[in-house]
Amino acid sequence: MSEHKIKVGITHGDINGIGYEIIIKALCDSHITELFTPIIYGSAKAVAFYRKGIEGAENFSVNQITSARDANAKRVNLVNCVDENIRIEPGVSTPEAGAAAAAALHAAVADLKAGVIDVLVTAPINKENIQSETFHFTGHTEFLATEAGGVQPLMLMISDTLKVGLLTIHIPVSQIASGVTKEGIVSHLKELRESLIRDFAVVEPRLAVLALNPHAGDGGLLGTEEEEIIRPAVVEASDNGMLAFGPFAADGFFASGNYLKYDAMLAMYHDQGLAPFKALSPDGVNYTAGLPFVRTSPAHGVGYDIAGTGKADPSSMRAAIYAAIDIFRNRRRYADMTRHPLQHYERERGADVSVNDLPQTEN
User: Which of 33, 83, 153, 158 is deepest in the core (most CB within 10 A)?
Assistant: First the structure.
C-alpha cells in the first residue's frame, strides 16, 4: 500500500514580516513536492512581491486554486485569502496585515478541521495588529485551543536535542506566580508525557520540572512555591506513574547540560523556557501539543527589522514543516499500534476495517 502524501497547509502570517521569505525559501527546492503537497493560504501578489528579493527564487511559482481540495500534488499550491489590492509594506505593522493574517488562519483551520489538509504550519503573526472583533486571542495557541473545542493545549518548543513545555504562556510577569498551581503542573506533565509517547515515539519519557524562584527557592528563603506547590506536584505525578523529577533551578539546569538527561522539561513561564531554548536551538520549532490536529510554527517572530531584505533564515520554517509531517506519521503509527490487532493487520493489507467488524476478545 502506497503511503499517503501529506497535505501541509501553510499560513502566510503577517504579510509585512518575513513570513513569505521563509516560506518561499523553504519551498524553493524543486524536489520538495516529492515529500508532501504544500498549500499556502495567502496572497499571490505577496508571493510575487517577495520572490523578487530572494536569490535563487526567480523560477519559484505557485498553482493558484480556489480550494485546497483542488491542490496539485506536484506543485506548490496557493489559496488566495485576501484582496489582491492589499498594500504590502515590509517592516511596517498595519491593520491590513493583521486582517490578512487572520483571514489566512481562519481559512486554513477550517480546512484542517474538515480534513482537507493534514497538518498546519503557521508563519509568524503580530499579536497586536491581528486583534479584531473576530480575533481576540493572545496568540496562535489560544486561538487553536478554542477552535478545537476549548481544550487545554501545551505550548511545546522542540528540536533534535531539546523539548520544553510551558506551564504559563502569554500572561504578564506579575501574574506568573498565581498561575503556578499543583493541579496545573500535574495536568501539563500528563499532557507532556502523552505527547512524547504519541507524537515523538518515546517509550516512557523522563520529565524534568523547573523551579519558579532563583536557586529553587533556597529552602523557602527566596520563595515558597517550590516546597508548597511544585515539589508536591512532582510527587503526585510520580505516584501516578510518570517519571517526573525536580524542581530544578533553571540556570544551573541548562548551564550544566543537565537537560540532556531528560526527554523534555516543563518550564514555569514563557521566557524561562524560551530564552535557553532559542539560544540552544536556533532552528527550533513551536509545537502545540494536545490538539486533535497537528500544528507547528517557526520559533521566531515577524522579523520586521529584516523584512523584505532577503536575509531571513528559513531553517526554522523548514524544520517546522518536517516536524509536522513526522508528528502526523507518528500519530498514525501510534493509532495503528493501539487499535484492535486484526484491524491493524487488515489496514497493513490495504483494507478499511472497522473495529465493530472484528471479533471482540473477552476480558
Answer: 158
Q: Are 106 and 120 in contact (CB under 8 A)?
A: no
Contact residues for 359 (Cβ-Cβ < 8 A; gap 6+):
342
Q: How far is CA 198 from CA 154, 284, 327, in A?
A: 14, 20, 8
- H-type alpha helices, 160-223: 176-179, 182-200
Q: Give the closest residue to 239 by CA, choosing from 280, 189, 283.
A: 189
Partner residues linked to 24 by β-bridges: none
pLDDT in tens, 56-98: 898 899 999 999 999 999 999 999 999 989 999 999 999 999 9
- Determine how β-strand 264-267 pairs with β-strand 294-298: unpaired
Q: What is the pLDDT of residue 139?
A: 86
Cα pseudo-dihedral 334, 335, 336, 342, rounded to 10: 140
Residue 67: count other Cβ atoms within 10 Å of its Cβ. 12
Cell 510575487 found at: 48
Task: Report the C-alpha dihedral over residues 280, 283, 288, 289, rounded to 10 degrees.
Answer: -60
CA angle 292, 9, 339 (to 5 degrees): 35
Distances (CA, A) of 190 to 41, 81, 230: 34, 38, 15
Nearest residue to 11 via CA among 26, 23, 25: 23
Q: What is the pTM of this model?
A: 0.89
Residue pair 358/343 in contact (Cβ under 8 Å)? The answer is yes
Rounded distance between C-alpha atoms, residue 244 and residue 21, angstroms: 41
Is residue 205 within 8 Å of 197, Cβ to Cβ? yes
pLDDT in tens, 115-165: 999 999 999 999 999 999 889 998 898 899 999 998 888 999 999 999 999
3-state secondary structure of 27: helix
**Can you tell me the distance from the alpha carbon of 242 to that of 63, in angstroms, rounded to the nearest whole number?**
48
For residue 118, give the C-alpha cell: 493534514
> What is residue 60's three-state secondary structure?
coil
| Partners of residue 163 on adjacent β-strands | 158
